[in-house]
Amino acid sequence: MQTVLCLKWGDRYGPEYVNRLYSMVSRNTSRPLRFVCITDNPTDIRPEVELKEMPPFDLPEALRFHPFRRMFIFQEKLDDLSGNVLHLDLDLLVTGSIDGFFDYKPELDFVVAENWTQPGQGIGNMSVFRFRVGALTRVWERFRADPMAMKRTYQNSQTFVCRTLGKVEFFPASWCVSFKHSLIPVWPLNFIKTPSLPAATRVVAFTGKPDIDEAHRGEWPTGSLWKKLYKHVRPTPWIMDHWC
Description:
single chain; about 240 residues; alpha/beta; three-stranded mixed β-sheet; 9 helices; globular
């Protein structure tokens, strides 16, 4: 049994993101799957998804919709989950087998995709990471002692986690790519070439803008006239081959 976990709170992403993520994951595994969503709103989430209630919010209000809120998953107990769990953000595509994410160095307590904008700095991008339930309590304990201090000290939650753990292991770079940083051709080729999907890719993350649907339509929202001169993406049809 392979356990995949996603988190959904607030209204940034609707239930269709959970439903499509389940569909992509289930198509891309050859093994029994346990797909869990921890959420504050289970409405319209498909019945194949195992729903867990989001823990009561007892953090400073500034963290209600912040990625730091997910630090609760590093507590000693996470409902009835156990062993190695693969966490996937809602705003990504699964384009290849997830089985390797469980097979890759399974003895490790934490493995993550390397952050595409900080290569060589020992920082992961927590769109995709595997963790062993109950093995990383030092992350939770350090955060819980002073949440706002951690937010002030670190640029984001993934930097906090990786710096707290020290040296972290990364999945093979070819498995996890960023649509924006890895696949959109460099300027000015992005105006004439459609992003392509490398054969070895298993996950495509959509960090920042454009969102998945925007990238499919060839839209890159920006309020700046200057940024419109270089922030451009052509319509990318292959996205909908997977995001369904």
